[in-house]
Design goal:
Layout: E1 3-7, E2 14-17, H1 18-30, H2 40-54, H3 57-73, H4 77-91, H5 95-111, H6 115-130, H7 135-151, H8 160-170, H9 175-191, H10 195-212, H11 215-230, H12 247-264, H13 267-280, H14 286-289, H15 293-300, H16 320-333, H17 336-349, H18 364-374, H19 378-395, H20 398-414, H21 421-437, H22 443-463, H23 466-476, H24 481-488, H25 492-506, H26 511-520
Antiparallel strand pairs: 1-2
Helix pairs in contact: 1-2, 1-3, 2-3, 3-4, 3-5, 4-5, 5-6, 5-7, 6-7, 7-9, 8-9, 9-10, 9-11, 10-11, 11-12, 12-13, 15-16, 16-18, 17-18, 18-19, 18-22, 19-20, 20-21, 20-22, 23-25, 23-26, 24-25, 25-26
């Protein structure tokens, strides 16, 4: 590496070689405020010129990466991708430098909601990373690829490899890579249903950023602390967090504020959060905005039944909050067609291991339970609500747990399933006590469950398959399973299976109750 003097016109400091200059430029660029955003260009142009003169491929890669990160920070995401692609075209087959730029390109593709493109590049990046030198480049490339997989939710089924990588990076001196990894590991652990496990990593990130004077990661740490400590509580007046230099943290904070305001039904706070989201939207990656129309439906009306809410084109860690917000909205306010569509999308696009999200901490099982009840599957919906209660109690989500209890008690009270009055009245009283303690009106969520149950009963006829209707008619005529099987020329266990499916959709467990429900609904 040639030792030269490069003057930084921003601060007057000097660096004695290209590698030191790049680190110096990164630190100087972090301190620029919004009025100085173009000042980093002089740093970039100086470093790029020297890298070309010295034919330093790693230096070229570092400068291209530096420019891409700055462009991305300024919200110019397509320009950042173009910068990385230009750098790759200049590098040729230089393995280590190519690994570094390619890994960042994969990450930006993932955040831009190009999952197929990102996954297609990951295999090539993994191969490049194996041969990358020196250690810093290999580690940074590995971290970028790991974050991309995290964003794509490819790691949600088993976060242990990501945790192992985090501990390995933690033992090195690569604080930059560690802080970047933590900024995505923490939301992943929360999404996985483990906010308690995420807390130590949030504290580690806060300690790391306090010593490194990195405002971007410091904002991440502050928002993570707020989200984890508040969980799903509805307190107003959230502590001030400086997110001026971190658009992702600002977006998450605005979503969290909107969620709390919606819980309190605070119209002024809702409008304030909406304005903050509108302000941040132009700077966001496409992935964050995939499903952004959901926010209009969620926040513009607290109880609107005439707005169609379409599912996002893809689901990832960057738009998980919007997915859960849309699911909750449709479960409460959507029509039956929307409820069916969202339930199918939820089952196919969102891993079962996803339990909640950082900035919209709604229990997935609870809203999925409401959707199942809306579509006529009362038995399955009640099971989902029970699952939500169990998870909320173990993970420390008191409000979500109370909502799940309240809504399950309403379903139990309305259902034809034999239950003791003492059981559901006790559950309802327990839930109402918690909600009132948090200043929340229990009437609205109780009505949501009642409405879901009522809608589900009306939806049952549309959900029963023709064969299931045939079986119910034969059973209504007094035939046994075996006699109905002879009539339909099938095995008797096939008839039993059709009957059980019909029972589940009608929200009953016995043949007599199923026949009565089918007659009442006009199915037979």
């Amino acid at each position: 590496m040639s030792h030269i003097i490069l003057c930084d016109m921003t601060s007057g400091d000097v660096a004695v070689d290209l590698e030191a200059f790049i680190e110096h430029a990164r630190r100087a660029a972090r301190s620029l405020d919004s009025s100085q955003r173009e000042a980093w260009l002089s740093l970039y142009e100086s470093g790029l010129r020297v890298a070309f003169e010295q034919q330093d491929r790693r230096g070229l890669a570092d400068m291209a990466l530096f420019a891409a990160v700055r462009l991305d920070t300024d919200g110019r995401h397509e320009d950042a991708i173009a910068q990385l692609e230009m750098g790759l075209s200049l590098l040729g087959d230089s393995g280590s430098a190519t690994a570094l730029l390619s890994s960042m390109l994969v990450l930006y593709r993932a955040m831009g909601h190009q999952p197929s493109t990102a996954r297609g590049l990951l295999a090539a990046v993994d191969d490049l990373v194996q041969h990358a030198r020196p250690r810093r480049v290999r580690m940074e490339s590995t971290v970028n690829a790991a974050i991309a997989r995290c964003v794509l939710l490819d790691t949600v089924g088993d976060p242990r490899p990501l945790l192992q990588l985090t501990r390995r990076v933690q033992r090195t001196s690569f604080d930059w890579q560690l802080s970047g990894l933590l900024s995505w590991l923490i939301p992943l652990l929360v999404a996985h249903g483990d906010p308690v496990g995420a807390s130590p990593w949030q504290r580690a990130l806060a300690a790391l950023t306090s010593s490194s004077e990195h405002p971007w990661r410091a904002a991440d740490a502050a928002v993570f602390r707020l989200a984890i400590e508040h969980r799903d509580a509805s307190e107003g007046g959230a502590p001030a967090v400086d997110t001026a230099n971190n658009y992702i943290a600002a977006w998450r904070l605005a979503l969290l504020s909107l969620h709390h305001a919606m819980r309190r039904r605070d119209l002024a706070a809702i409008e304030e959060a909406r304005e903050a989201l509108t302000t941040q939207s132009p700077r966001m990656h496409a992935g964050f905005l995939d499903g952004a129309a959901i926010l209009e439906a969620v926040s513009s009306r607290l109880a609107a039944d005439d707005m169609e809410v379409l599912p996002p084109t893809a689901v990832s860690l960057v738009n998980l909050e919007l997915v859960l917000a849309g699911t909750e909205y449709v479960a409460v306010h959507g029509d039956q067609a929307s409820a069916t569509a969202w339930l199918a999308r939820l089952s196919s696009a969102l891993p079962r291991e996803v339990r909640t999200s950082l900035a919209w901490p709604v229990a997935r099982d609870r809203v999925e339970g409401l959707l199942r009840i809306r579509t006529g599957d009362v038995r399955g919906g009640a099971a989902s609500l029970r699952g939500a209660i169990q998870w909320c109690d173990s993970a420390g989500y008191p409000v979500e747990g109370a909502l799940s209890r309240l809504q399950l008690s309403e379903v139990m009270a309305l259902s034809e399933r034999p239950t003791t009055r003492e059981r559901w009245t006790s559950m309802r009283a327990q839930a109402m006590e918690v909600l009132e303690e948090h200043g929340l009106d229990p009437v609205a969520p109780a009505y949501q469950a009642t409405r879901a149950f009522s809608s589900g009963r009306g939806a049952s006829s549309a959900l029963l398959a023709p064969r299931e209707v045939q079986v119910l008619k034969l059973l209504a005529d007094g035939l046994t399973y075996r006699e109905a099987a002879e009539e339909l020329n099938v095995q008797w266990r096939t008839v039993q299976t059709h009957a059980y499916h019909a029972y589940s959709k009608l929200g009953v467990t016995r043949r007599l109750a199923a026949v009565e429900a089918a007659r009442r609904l006009g199915i037979i």
